Amino acid sequence: VERYNPREMEPHWQKVWEDRQSFVVRHEDPRERYYVLEMFPYPSGRIHMGHVRNYALGDVVARYQRARGKNVLHPMGWDAFGLPAENAAIERGLNPGVWTRQNIEAMRAQLKSMGLSLDWTREVATCDPEYYKHQQALFLDMLEAGLVTRKQSKVNWDPVDMTVLANEQVIDGRGWRSGSTVEQRELTQWFFKISDFAEDLLTALDDLNEWPDKVRTMQRNWIGKSEGLRLLFALQPNEKTAATSIDVFTTRPDTIFGASFIAVSPDHPLTEELVNADPALAEFVAECHRHGTATETLEKAEKQGYFTGLNVEHPVKPGQTLPVYVANFVLMDYGTGAIFGSAGHDQRDLEFARKYGLPVIPVVLPPGADPETFTIGDEAYTDTGTIFNSAFLDGLSIEEAKRTIADHFASLRVDGRPQGTVEVNYRLRDWGVSRQRYWGSPIPVIHCEVCGTIPVPKKDLPVVLPEDVTFDKPGNPLDHHPTWKHVDCPQCGRPARRETDTMDTFVDSSWYFIRFTAPHADTPTLPEEANAWMPVDQYIGGVEHAILHLLYSRFFTRAMRMTGHIGLDEPFKGMFTQGMVTHETYKSDDGRWLSPEEVRVEMGDGDRRATEIATGNPAQIGSIEKISKSKRNGIDPDEILKTYGADTARWFMLSDSPPERDVQWTEAGVEGASRFQQRIWRLVTETIAISEQFAEIVPGSHDEDALALRRIVHRAVKHVGEDIEGLRFNRAVAQIYELTNALTRCYIGLVSPAPQARCAALREGVEHLVQLIAPMMPHLAETCWEALGLEGLVADAPWPIVDPALLVDDTVTLPIQINGKRRAEITVAKGSQQKTVEELVLSLEPVARMLEGKSVKKIVVVPDRIVNVVV
Ligand code: ANZ
Ligand code: ZN
């Protein structure tokens, strides 16, 4: 048998699919729609193994749903704006647009060589004016609908990348890309009002039951709903401020008797008032700013405070006061920007109190603890318990105490307001989308000294990004461009200035999946198309996008609904987050990281040993790690695709571990996948040969081996289908291995002349096998399909129909009576019905002999009991 040659067959079938436009979605297709999408790639230049895994998973779903008779939308595009293009421009003098488009070309070719069932006619690139033009229109619509605001805000400023960073781009106080210490700056920025949707974005998560729980939890935590109390503290009379009270937000009003201080944010209006007369405080605030205010930074930083000299009245201990501090761990943009500290029951408060010699008063007694001896050590007590040391709250549970104290403060007044009001706070902040960056979608507004900030009229869209920019000065090239920003005001006609900030690239990816439903429309969407296709039935991507990208997309879909572009809120019905691709690491004897190509790994004395090829020196086999540039343990998909072909790479990605877990890429694993590919090809070609060799097949022979095989085949069809639907691809693969073994055993067991039933069962099994592998190894499957002489393409073939009778676990042996006399018997699957049994009986050799020359009047099948043939 000739070996299967993927290098020849894969490009062949890719061309056939392309020529036939096999995966192009037709508007008039009446079948039920199914939308499967993998997160679109950033065009960095080459695909990586993470892409291979992502797209292999998605393609299985797409091809399977096609086989199930769905009209499948499976598009691809490019998340093409962003920093790396600018860095390439700065470092290598390449024009960002040219660089990006070259990368897209290269990566498109790579993706095509994977044989993905994509509708390439719908390709979009976010850096294309054809795309961002509509994004600018959406921005204008959202502006008009009150979903966009412009406000002053403190931002994280990366002094090296010269840009504003989102909080999550600040890691340990440093820029995620540049690694430089992040500073605070005050800038006027554009914001999407995502916080208006906090409650809706939160509660709607409950209905997203095809999402992983962990992703929903991450979203919940990010939205961060807190129910608590706004509590007013009356300031003691003083000369320093005109303010007479401080508002704090607390989720633990039950600990009020343990209060030992008040702390306000360095950015609190009170602080801003006090710094004028207090240079040391001004210095303290400046120091806080140098350290940044990103939440993460603050959690790790040492708690620092500055006593303002102010005191407030203790709200439940008449005659006592609490000192007011400015503290670095209090954020201005959460709650009220001020807290009361209860050192016994909050770790930060405890550290702060210990540092500044403030009292630590425990007020929650752990179950079973002795109130006389219970004290707080190095750790605050944050668990459940009973309130004590708290006058009228004593003996209550935390929840009871919260209610009681809320009622208590509701009826009291400070500054003419209720002293306590129940309040809900969300951690979710408005989404700042301004970036002082060149390679992004321009924000379509114009600043006029007379008229203010004016939207660009829709007829003037797109505001095209100029490509003739230079990167010789730091900062935003749009600011340095000689002409671009100078325009006439659309309202008064006077010289005005374009907005030179561009949009956060998360905006680009927040609606591309809707654009795919009508990628060539001259409006952002065609609502009827958007509504027909959306929501995405199955979205697949990395868990690193589980928070922001998904949250922003959920917000955007809502915003697009409010502005009439779509009729639904939730963009992704099914969500799946894949695991990462890992690989062994290697180090040379002098401690350099070595790439897998630079080492040879062999078995020696029972363990694996590595040698550095270049030097011949022994190398160390290190731990298994996520593929990364720094550890040099990457595998280039191009090499894999060239050496083994796409089907092998796809098969291995699917086979080795559950898709939500990490998969370890190993040479041995790929070799195994490649061998399996050859095994299937051999099985198919040999099965074909049998039908020729065994031309003289003994007719009419029902046999139990055939039945047993058919049962294995049909069970495999059922299980593989279920496993694909449940995204348990590795289990589907295991089923296919088993089926292949069974078919091979059957084939080997055949001797000429073979019973026809067994040959037929083998043939049926092999045909079904080819269909089962088609979503995973589509090229091999097409080759087999053609060799088997089957019609059309396997890509167009409907999923095999399972005979339920063959799924029944047990068989029964039925007596066969001919004209009332018992003549033979037959073993069939339990529960086999009239038609199946009838066919089998007639094909049974002894029956056929006895019936020769006679005409059958009637066959009565009593399922699982008896067969009566009347002649
Ligand atoms: C007193 C108290 C006592 C608190 C106690 C906690 C434990 P979540 O659940 O995240 O909403 N807080 C309020 N505003 C803050 C701000 N702007 N910056 C930093 N911390 C702030 O947390 C609410 C709790 O975080 C509030 O409840 C407040 O401290 C603090 F034993 O009030 B608590
Ligand atoms: Zn004007």
Please provide a written account of the structure:
The protein is α+β, with helices and mostly antiparallel strands and 871 residues long. It contains 26 helices and 39 strands. Strands 30, 31, 32, 33, 34 and 35 form a 6-stranded mixed sheet that branches. Strands 2-1-28-29 form a 4-stranded parallel sheet, covered by helices on one side. A hairpin with a 5-residue loop joins strand 33 (607-612) and strand 34. Helix 19 crosses helix 20 (667-693) and helix 20 packs across helix 22. The two termini are 48 Å apart. The mean pLDDT is 93.
The structure class reads: alpha+beta
Largest sheet: 6 strands, mixed
Question: What fraction strand?
Answer: 15-25%
Radius of gyration: 35 Å
| Unreliable sequence segments | none
How many distinct beta strands?
A: 39
The outline comes out as globular
Described by its quaternary structure, the protein is single chain
Compute the number of helices.
26
Look at the structure and give the mean pLDDT. 93
Hetero compounds: ligand ANZ, zinc ion
Distance between the termini: 48 Å
The percentage helix is 25-40%
